[in-house]
Specification:
Low-confidence stretches: none
Radius of gyration: 29 Å
CATH topology of the largest domain: Heat Shock Protein 90
Number of helices: 8
Number of domains: 2
Number of strands: 8
Helix content: 40-55%
CATH superfamily of the largest domain: Histidine kinase-like ATPase, C-terminal domain
Distance between the termini: 37 Å
Order of helices and strands: HEHEEHHHEHHEEHEE
């Protein structure tokens, strides 16, 4: 306790009895020295003798080990600083890539889509116009995928899942003209495995994108909950809705595949009082 909180070396007669250990510790006298650098204790350096070993010298042993601990703490601090510099380089590179995707690639795809839409109106044969419109739909899907990639590139490395959900919902407000209602229940950050998180966020973005493009809604509600061993996402709106069965093109098909890949399920259908309900769930253990 003294070494960790006070930053001072300590000698204990029996390390096994000096603190609680998860496993049995069979040692004798021990010298405990803090690994301190820049006024902060980074850890502890412990040297112990075997049972019935000789005691440590208050002057010689403490000075020698304290000098070594100071050098070790300095090396740890330099290694941490190097990791932070490398992380900063990665983040700057990710921001540059995201900016290029948004300012160059998406704009060119959007312009290409506009040109194709104009060409579709001039097509003399209906099947030609249908193929051009199909190509425009593919471009729209590609643009959404790139925007999703940009969002992931700009997401902080240590961001919590709850924070990312809130950011995704906030991002949809600009296109909807209002902020969707959001409710998050349960231990989202601790219970949802890392391999499930990208699927959850991708499905949430796709569901909100569909509400923007098709629903003409005045209210959208998002519920993300963890309970009874399952992660559930529900996105409902009060828009124009649709008729079942829904045409599961690339966006809806991807949502279903993401659920089935994790052993879960996906449904989409009209609400009894109007609008559309999307439900997506996967098991969490």
């Amino acid at each position: 306790g003294t070494a960790l909180t006070g930053g001072e070396a300590a000698i204990v007669p029996d390390l096994g009895r000096a603190s609680y250990w998860p496993v049995a510790v069979s040692t004798g006298p021990a010298l405990i020295v803090p690994l301190a650098a820049s006024g902060a204790v980074l850890g502890l350096l412990v040297v112990a003798h075997p049972p019935d070993g000789t005691a440590f010298d208050d002057d010689t042993d403490v000075n020698l080990l304290s000098t070594f601990a100071g050098q070790a703490a300095l090396a740890l601090e330099r290694a941490r600083a190097q990791e932070e510099r490398e992380l900063l380089v990665v983040l700057e590179d990710r921001e540059r890539i995201a900016r290029d995707l948004h300012d160059v690639v998406i704009q060119r795809l959007f312009a290409t889509g506009l040109h194709l839409q104009s060409a579709a109106r001039l097509a003399g044969r209906p099947e030609v116009g249908a193929r051009i419109n199909s190509a425009v739909d593919d471009l729209d899907t590609t643009i959404r995928d790139i925007r999703s990639a940009i969002f992931e590139l700009r997401t902080p490395v240590n961001a919590t899942l709850r924070t990312e959900i809130v950011a995704t919902v906030d991002a949809a407000a600009a296109s909807l003209g209002f902020r969707p209602e959001l409710r998050v229940d349960g231990p989202i950050d601790s219970a949802v495995p890392d391999e499930v998180r990208p699927d959850l966020l991708a499905v949430l973005r796709e569901a909100l994108s569909n509400a923007v493009r098709h629903a003409r809604a005045g209210r959208v509600e998002v519920i993300v909950a963890v309970a009874d061993g399952a992660l559930r996402l529900s996105v409902t709106d009060d828009g124009v809705g649709g008729t079942a069965p829904f045409d599961e093109r690339s966006g809806l098909a991807n949502m279903r595949q993401r659920a089935e890949r994790q052993g879960g399920g996906f449904t989409i259908g009209p609400k009894p009082d109007g609008g559309t309900r999307v439900e997506w769930s996967v098991p969490v253990r």
